[in-house]
Design goal:
The protein is 41% helix and 15% strand. It is of the alpha/beta class. The strands form three sheets. An eight-stranded parallel beta barrel has the order 3-4-7-8-9-10-12-13, surrounded by four helices. Strands 5-6-11 form a three-stranded antiparallel beta sheet, with no helix packed on it. Helix 5 (168-179) packs parallel to helix 6 (204-223). Bound molecules: flavin mononucleotide (FMN). The site of flavin mononucleotide (FMN) has 27 residues, from strand 6, strand 11 and helix 10.
């Protein structure tokens, strides 16, 4: 039933794509979401037995969580955590929902989203538009009460735009407290370019302060019986970091027991001929691929392979995913490729990855993680 439905959805996307691409990007996102919400509703009502794409060569325990396959949904697409079951149905091995902030916020004024199909890129200046942690938590609790998620669900948390940087740790802690009971992991986003000053929180002092605060909150919630166990905390980093900044961040990751590094968010760089004329904002998709892979490789080296990495940025094919895995990523995520290639993207990458493992004589994905990190 899964595979047939996925094929049908991909066919629907092929038919609808020209119409979607003729619309304003945010409008077409809204239309696509109306369709996906109906699918989520139907899944919850009918509760069909469906399992995620899994294969013994893929199954990994990362940060204490079991991942059926390594291809995840990146943060920013399901900002209010509305569609957790849809992502599993579409073949993703995990999904990162959010970014959610403590306060509800509308995000930046429109237009704030642009597609550039000739370079397979997207530029966004969304600015964490979301319902706020309390409403997201209420809604997600209802969604998961009717049906558990068959894949690990992460929730990406960010600083509210109204909160001064000096109070960032408390702001993250508020969101963490509300959402940790519903998440398999939490990802601290200090790397979006669209919230003024957010990237400054990547400084070792500020990041340590936030992580320390979340560690305390984790312990407090466990002691109060509100969490069965402390939730793994991931950190999502920017692709625009120097080698020194990466080394300093890696030291914080090690000292603060960060469970995984998500590398990377969108870039503000416009350093190639093809990107020089793109508008300001976070650039994602094909032009980000190499830069993100280089950051993964540097983190893998600095962390000596001891902290898992989730590789994200410009993954469109199994080859792109494999490149990130060989650079040091245990898992990958995608966003922009879903816009350009449609809902069949995760199964296509999974099948291609299995072929690449066979080609290289590997019996398990973990054998090739970091194989080309030097
Ligand atoms: C429209 C849009 C919105 C995004 N919003 C978020 C967000 O809210 N939080 C976040 O951590 N990353 C966000 N991202 C970044 C993605 O999660 C991902 O890191 C980046 O797009 C690179 O992956 P890709 O090339 O596969 O798109 C967003 C990306 C796009 C294109």
């Amino acid at each position: 039933m899964n595979a047939g439905l996925r094929r049908l959805l991909q066919l629907g996307y092929r038919v609808a794509r020209p119409g979607f691409f003729a619309l304003d990007p945010e409008r077409s996102h809204e239309w696509a979401f109306i369709g996906l919400r109906s699918l989520e509703f139907a899944l919850r009502r009918l509760r069909p037995s469906f399992s995620p794409i899994r294969d013994p060569r893929f199954e990994q325990t990362v940060a204490g969580l079991v991942f059926p396959n390594p291809v995840g949904l990146a943060a920013g697409l399901d900002k209010n955590a509305e569609l957790p079951h849809v992502w599993a149905l579409l073949g993703f091995g995990f999904a990162e929902l959010g970014t959610v902030t403590a306060h509800p916020q509308p995000g930046n004024p429109k237009p704030r989203l642009w597609r550039f199909p000739e370079v397979r890129a997207v530029v966004n200046r969304m600015g964490f538009n979301n319902w706020g942690a309390a409403r997201v938590a209420r809604n997600l609790a209802q969604t998961l009460a009717s049906m558990k998620s068959p894949i690990p669900l992460g929730i990406n948390i960010g600083k509210s735009v109204a909160t001064p940087l000096a109070q960032a740790a408390d702001d993250y802690a508020t969101t963490f407290t509300l959402l940790a009971p519903l998440a398999d992991y939490l990802c601290v986003n200090v790397s979006s370019p669209n919230t003024p000053g957010l990237r400054e929180l990547q400084s070792p002092e500020q990041l340590s302060q936030i992580l320390h605060r979340l560690h305390q909150e984790n312990q407090r919630l466990v002691a109060a019986g509100k969490l069965s166990h402390a939730r793994p905390v991931f950190v999502k980093v920017a692709p625009d970091l120097s080698a020194e900044q990466i080394a300093a961040l890696a030291a914080v990751v090690r000292s603060q027991d960060v469970a995984a590094v998500v590398a990377t968010n969108t870039t503000t760089a416009r350093d190639t001929q093809e990107t020089a004329f793109l508008p300001p904002g976070g650039l994602s998709g094909a032009p980000l691929r190499e830069r993100a892979t280089a950051v993964i490789r540097q983190f893998f080296r600095c962390l000596e392979g001891r902290v898992p990495i989730v590789g994200v940025g410009g993954v469109f094919s199994a080859e792109d995913a494999y490149e990130k895995i060989q650079a040091g990523a245990s898992l990958v995520q995608i966003y922009t490729a879903l816009v350009y290639e449609g809902p069949g993207i995760a199964p296509a990458i999974c099948h291609g990855l299995l072929r690449l493992l066979e080609r290289d004589g590997a019996n398990h994905l973990s054998e090739v993680v970091g194989r080309r990190a030097d």
